[in-house]
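Design request, tokens follow.
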């Protein structure tokens, strides 16, 4: 069933799409969401969904990433929601494509499709999209489906971070943000580590416990190495 938008009219919504693989804590994704939760009526965290036929399968299971996102973000503020919206949009579109005989392994759904689905259900929403420098560069380079239309559909909230160089001028209408309390923590660093003392600096404690309990990322590799001895 599609997410029920009916009781949420006329709100300023800010979307944060992320792989959440895993979501990082204070100084990373959590600080970013907290910052925007203070500026918008709601922040929707939208973990990326990869359907079963997708060729790129380097993401942890969707349910695990949803669970970690909830642990990481829902305690930030009451107006922060973690939604399975991308799963719903992708599944609906995939079923339609397969019914039309399209090869599911070639099937993709982009941010444009996701935004279209949201706006079709609730055209009165005032929607913003949180975007980092790398994502902005990709958008301006035309790497996204209908890249040129996305700035017309949403207000882009561009987050500038040290070490990420913008390759294009920032057009009028895009709001720039510089967050003082962000660090260079990244999900890539987290995935390659199984050092709890190190990970405590990068992750919300509940997310770290979830990763340890479920033997994910570096803890999965450590367990496999121990079994191989």
């Amino acid at each position: 069933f599609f997410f029920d938008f009916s009781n949420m009219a006329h709100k300023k919504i800010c979307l944060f799409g992320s792989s959440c693989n895993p979501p990082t804590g204070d100084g990373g994704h959590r600080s970013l969401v907290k910052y925007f939760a203070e500026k918008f009526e709601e922040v929707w965290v939208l973990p990326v969904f990869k359907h079963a036929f997708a060729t790129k399968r380097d993401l942890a299971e969707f349910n695990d990433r949803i669970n970690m996102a909830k642990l990481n973000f829902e305690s930030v503020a009451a107006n922060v929601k973690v939604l399975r919206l991308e799963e719903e949009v992708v599944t609906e579109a995939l079923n339609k494509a397969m019914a039309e005989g399209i090869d599911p392994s070639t099937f993709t759904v982009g941010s444009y499709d996701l935004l279209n689905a949201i706006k079709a259900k609730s055209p009165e929403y005032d929607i913003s999209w949180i975007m980092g420098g790398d994502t902005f560069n990709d958008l301006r380079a035309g790497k996204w489906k209908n890249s040129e239309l996305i700035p017309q559909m949403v207000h882009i909230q561009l987050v500038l971070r040290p070490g990420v160089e913008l390759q294009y001028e920032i057009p009028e209408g895009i709001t720039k943000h510089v967050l003082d309390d962000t660090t260079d923590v990244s999900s890539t660093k987290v995935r390659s580590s199984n050092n709890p003392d190190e990970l405590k600096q990068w992750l919300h404690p509940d997310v770290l416990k979830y990763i340890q309990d479920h033997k994910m990322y570096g803890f999965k590799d450590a367990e496999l190495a121990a079994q191989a001895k």
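Comment from the thread starter after seeing the answer: thanks! Strands lie at 12-18, 42-47, 80-82, 126-132, 155-160, 175-178.
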